[in-house]
Amino acid sequence: MRLAFSTLGVPGLPIPDVIRLAATHGYHGVELRAHPEEPVHPGIDLAGRADVAAEFKAGGIEVLGLAGYARVAAPGDDGPVIDEIRGLLDLARDLGAPYIRVFPGGGHEQSTERADATAARRLGTAAEHAADLGVRILLETHDSHRRAADAIRILGRVGHRHVGALWDVMHTWLGGEQPSESYAALSPYLGYVQVKDIASADDTTPLALGAGVLPLTETVEVLSRHGWDGWLCWEYEKRWYEEAAPLPELLAAGREHLGRLLNECA
């Protein structure tokens, strides 16, 4: 398995510094938070995109994916959501990133059936553009569809190889699933896996990997046992928790912790 971290842990950090952190601490790739607060987002021009792609290539670090904020199950018109996804897909193509991330975002003001149908319809439409560009859209296990069992209700309806799943281990755990259950459901669709650690279900402040309660050992074990050879991406949510320790000082230990788990589960 290959290792990455998300720029959500280093909000606003210039791209050269992000690449330097990854290379220094032994990470193979980076997930870029695609938001106007960040250096990379769909609003940057073609020259800026080319510069970013060149910087990553020169640094020997891959752009794993773009963490976007389109909410595919949200109420409202399809058009703006599909346009947002297409903008992310175009940016991913220009940067050489294989994946973009979208959220469910179903909310409580609509039925589960309606949210599932809305999400599947929008993803199915966007999938054609994704296929043309060679990029996969990944639905994260999050918010209204935090369990794998929830996400596959949508993915099964779409049935397109350019639409898959991003397994956020925290959310499936908070939803009551064991890693073996989550993997069994998501494996036909799995793009990559987001790992993290927290103190408890009531305190989701990010911690160093291995310092909290999330089932990271079990997750790596089930992935290894089934021969899965994709990406593990550390999503450290510093952007939302100012009191959390700075990510750069944790990266080396996090890389070592994941390396130990991979060796133990091999």
Query: What structural category do the secondary elements indicate?
Result: alpha/beta
Strand content: 15-25%
Number of strands: 10
Q: What is the number of helical segments per DSSP (H or I, 4+ residues)?
A: 9
Strand order of the largest sheet: 1-2-3-4-5-6-7-10
Helix-strand pattern: EHEHEHEHEHEHHEEEHEH
Distance between the termini: 10 Å
Work out the radius of gyration.
Answer: 17 Å
Shape: globular
Q: Can you tell me the residue ranges where pLDDT is under 50 for at least 5 consecutive residues? A: none
Work out the helicity level: 40-55%
Overall pLDDT metric: 96
Q: Strand count, sense and closure of the main sheet?
A: 8 strands, parallel, barrel
Short description:
By secondary structure, the chain is α/β, with parallel strands linked by helices.
Notes on the structure:
43% of the residues lie in helices and 20% in strands. By secondary structure, it is of the alpha/beta class. Strands 1-2-3-4-5-6-7-10 form an eight-stranded parallel β-barrel, surrounded by seven helices. α3 packs parallel to α4 (112-133), α4 crosses α5 (148-158) and α8 (216-225) crosses α9.
Write the layout of secondary structure elements.
Layout: E1 2-6, H1 15-24, E2 29-33, H2 46-59, E3 62-71, H3 78-95, E4 99-103, H4 112-133, E5 136-140, H5 148-158, E6 163-168, H6 169-174, H7 179-186, E7 190-195, E8 198-200, E9 203-206, H8 216-225, E10 231-234, H9 251-265
Parallel strand pairs: 1-2, 1-10, 2-3, 3-4, 4-5, 5-6, 6-7, 7-10
Antiparallel strand pairs: 8-9
Helix pairs in contact: 1-2, 3-4, 4-5, 5-7, 8-9
